[in-house]
Amino acid sequence: MTAPWLHIVGIGEDGLDGLTPATRAVVEAADVIVGGDRHHSLSDQVTAERIAWPSPFDVMVTQIEALRGKRAVILVTGDPLWFSVGARIGRAIDRSEIVYHPQLSAFQLAAARMGWSLADVETLTVHGRPVEQMIAFIQPAVRLLILTTGAETPAQIARFLTKRGYGQSKMTVLAAMGGEREERFDGVAATWDHEVPAFNTLAVECVAASDAALLPRVPGLDDALFESDGTITKQEVRAATVSKLMPMRGALLWDIGCGSGSVAIEWMRAARYARAIGIEPRDDRRAMAGSNALALGVPKLELIAGTAPDGLEGLPAPDAVFIGGGLSAETFEAAWNGLRPLGRLVVNAVTLESEAQLLALHQKYGGKLVRLSVCRAEPVGGMTGWRPSMPVTQLSLVKR
Questions:
Q1: What is the mean pLDDT of the chain?
Q2: Strand pairing of 49-52 and 72-77?
Q3: According to the CATH classification, is domain 107-205 in 3.30.950.10?
Q4: Which CATH number fits domain 223-398: 3.40.50.150, 1.10.260.40, 3.30.56.70, 3.30.365.10?
Q5: What does DSSP say about strands 143-147 and 122-125: parallel, antiparallel, or unpaired?
Q6: Range 219-227, long-range pairs (CB < 8 A, 24+ positions)
Q7: 198 neighbors 128 (Cβ within 8 angstroms)
Q8: Cis preceding linkage at 316, omega within 30
């Protein structure tokens, strides 16, 4: 086992004074220190070779590996393993060669300033990521702590909240926590107008109006929340479909014939860091799916032009596959063969021809075959009656 030579050190606004004596000694003894401008200024008492963060990130990993044999220190903000580069470096360099030195994270400092229990809040980052991904967490009475991208981020989030009926949500921006320049800005989303420092953490206490959008993370969002030309898996069937796909943290879904993207979007909303690739041949439908993904807080939905089975070639192996359109024996075989072990595959059919294919697939592969029928109450003249939707036949399997 290689002895540790790389130290990844969390540092706060109080600089070297905030480090434990042992960690401070590591920094002061360093031959070379890697970090951003802010990190270097916080440790400018130390005389060591200085390296700024290179770009792209892969270049940085190569440069860090070249430091083997020296006493190398990487300075990061707060906890190196909580929405920081420490985990990424740990995937590239053997963990036995690294020592992590955690510092209080921005989340811990912000929770202390707000008097909030960290166990009862959602901790998010939009730093260097699409801000829209926080939308999926807007719910009544929820508390959010958000690492922001810059000075403009709180105003963007205030607009997201206001548009969805959460304009009275309380917002607090905390900057330079733990240092002499610490600042705090309070307000509500609907009237937010503060100019804040670029490096900040945002605390949000969601307050819902009576007409606020209710966007639970369990599947079954209202159809009206999706832009669609009719090619959408309807609400009740979608809830049953996503439950059979079993969203899990970091898992990948192929949504074949994704249309408006409703199944892929609900999959991504249902589990932290869940990913999805939507395969859709029509440009207009991919555009709709992309718009829906932004509006509902999953901007990382990947959309590709293509039809199955050819469009599946070269895609990363999925943990789940949904075939909502374009069912064929070849498509099913490609999807089934591509699935990881314990992968889930769900196929929905509405035509007699596709239903006949599901019967044949069920006989060959097993799984669960169900028929889903939904009726909705609608006006009939001056009264109300049940209007049935087309029944959906569903085959679901787990690859064991």
A1: 95
A2: unpaired
A3: yes
A4: 3.40.50.150
A5: parallel
A6: 219/243, 219/266, 219/267, 219/269, 219/270, 220/266, 221/262, 221/266, 221/296, 223/262, 225/292, 225/295, 225/296, 226/260, 226/261, 226/262, 226/265, 226/292, 226/296, 227/260, 227/288, 227/291, 227/292, 227/295
A7: no
A8: no
344-357, pLDDT tens digit by residue?
Answer: 999 999 999 999 99
Chain-centroid distance, C-alpha 188: 25
How much is the pTM?
0.91
Residue 165 β-bridge partners: none
The candidate with the shortest Cα–Cα distance to 136, out of 245, 53, 247, is: 247
pLDDT tens digits along 120-143: 999 999 998 999 999 999 999 999
CB 167 within 8 A of CB 190: yes
Q: Does 253 have pLDDT greater than 80?
A: yes
DSSP-derived 3-state class of residue 99: strand
Given this model, what pLDDT does residue 119 score? 96
Determine contact, residues 385/377, Cβ cutoff 8 Å: yes
Superfamily of domain 6-104: Tetrapyrrole methylase, N-terminal domain (3.40.1010.10)
Strands (E), 107-222: 122-125, 143-147, 170-175, 183-188, 200-205
Pairing of strands 143-147, 200-205: antiparallel
Encode burial over 286-321: b for 16+ CB neighbours within 10 A, e otherwise.
bebbbebbbbbbbbebebeeebbbebbeebeebbbb
- CB-based contacts of 186, cutoff 8 Å, min separation 6: 170, 171, 172
Nearest to 135 by CA among 296, 336, 362: 296
Whole-angstrom distance, CA of residue 249 vs CA of residue 274: 5
Strands 392-398, 344-349: pairing kind: antiparallel
What is the per-residue pLDDT for 1?
57
